[in-house]
Amino acid sequence: MDLDKACEFLRSNHRAVMLTWHVDGRPQLSPVTVGIDAQGRAIISTRETSVKVRNLRRDSRVALCVTTDAFFGQWIQIEGTAEIVSLPEAMDLLVSYYRDISGEHPDWDDYRAAMERDRRVIVRFDITRAGPDVHG
């Protein structure tokens, strides 16, 4: 699949399952909300203390299966190498992430406080591979 087509799919479809790897080689799967940043990178928000962040700090390979809200139907798989951006550097990215997916927040001060309280990070990656080209 063309990477530009994958980015376009991500602009309007945000439900995904993220794959990372446990230290013993077992897969670890997490439901996530994914967006696409201005540079065309896949981007998610999660807690600094999450298993997926711990896994990615050790092995930065990542894959997502992104679906439509209907779940059954069109989907894509994207892959890349993750970068983790922690607070305070992540705050502006977290605001952009929210805006791109959900629009304006009713109280940005409350949102920022929640991001700090939850120790949120941004996980982002260049999409190096995407597919499938056919469904069925």
TrEMBL record:
InterPro entries: F420-binding_dom_put, F420H2_bilvrd_red/Heme_oxyg, Pyridox_Oxase_N, Split_barrel_FMN-bd. Gene3D superfamilies: Electron Transport, Fmn-binding Protein, Chain A. The keyword RNA-binding does not apply. The lineage of its organism: Bacteria, Bacillati, Actinomycetota, Actinomycetes, Streptosporangiales. This is PPOX class F420-dependent enzyme. Pfam families: PNPOx_N. GO terms for cellular component: cytosol. It comes from Planobispora longispora. One of its GO terms (molecular function) is oxidoreductase activity, acting on the CH-CH group of donors. Keywords: Oxidoreductase. Residues 5-129 form the Pyridoxamine 5'-phosphate oxidase N-terminal domain.
